[in-house]
C-alpha cells in the first residue's frame, strides 16, 4: 500500500497526493493499492489494516534545503505522540502509525517506510516548486524499484504481437502488463521497424491500449501509421532496453510468423 499524505491546495504540501496520482498513471500492479491520504490521519491508520507493506509519502519542514528527501523506517514512529488536545484536524500520519499499532493490533503492518520531502513553500493555490517536483520523481523511482516492480509480471525479451485486419495492434495480457502498465503508448514506423513506446500515463498524450477480451489482452488502433503498408498477421517482437520500447521488425531479415 502506498499512501500519499498532504493538502493538494497548499503547494508543496501536496507532494504526497500528487505522487500517488503519478504512480496511478504508470499502472498499479496486482497486489498493490494506492491511497490519497489527504490530511485525514485517522483514515490513514485504518487504511493500513491488513497490508503487508506500507509506504507513506508526505511533506516536511525541517529547515533543510527544499527537495531534500528523508527515508525513515516506520519503527522511528513506534511510540504514540502526545494525545493531549488531539482532534481530527491535528491527527497526522505520524499519529496514524502509532495509533494503528494500538488500534489494529495484529492487523497493523510491521513493514512501514516513510518518505519525507522538504518543502519550499506551502502557499494556498500554488503548484509544486521545482525542487520538490524533482524530488518527487526521485521518490517515484525508488518506490517503483523497491516496492512495485517486484509485483509486476516479468517481461520476456521476445514475444509475439498481431496486426489485425481492422488496423489494430494486439498484445497479450502478460506483455501489456509487464511493459505497458499505464496503457498509454506512442508508436512510430522507421526503417522497416514498428516501435511501440510506453508513456507514463494518459496526461502524456499518445494512444491508449484498450482491453480486447476478458483475458486482459490489449489492442491499440494503429491504422493511421500503416497507410503506406499493409501489415496483417503475427510478428515477432523484441523488448529493446536501450530505447525502452517494443521493437517489431516488419521487413528485413528477422523472421515473421504467419
UniProtKB/TrEMBL annotation:
Domain of life: Bacteria
Annotated keywords: Aspartyl protease, Hydrolase, Protease
GO biological processes: protein processing
Record-linked SUPFAM superfamilies: HybD-like
Keyword Hydrolase: yes
InterPro entries: Pept_HybD-like_dom_sf (IPR023430), Peptidase_A31 (IPR000671)
Keyword Hydrolase: yes
Pfam families with a match to the protein in the record: HycI (PF01750)
Similarity section: Belongs to the peptidase A31 family.
Protein name per Swiss-Prot or TrEMBL: Peptidase M52
Organism of provenance: Mycolicibacterium poriferae
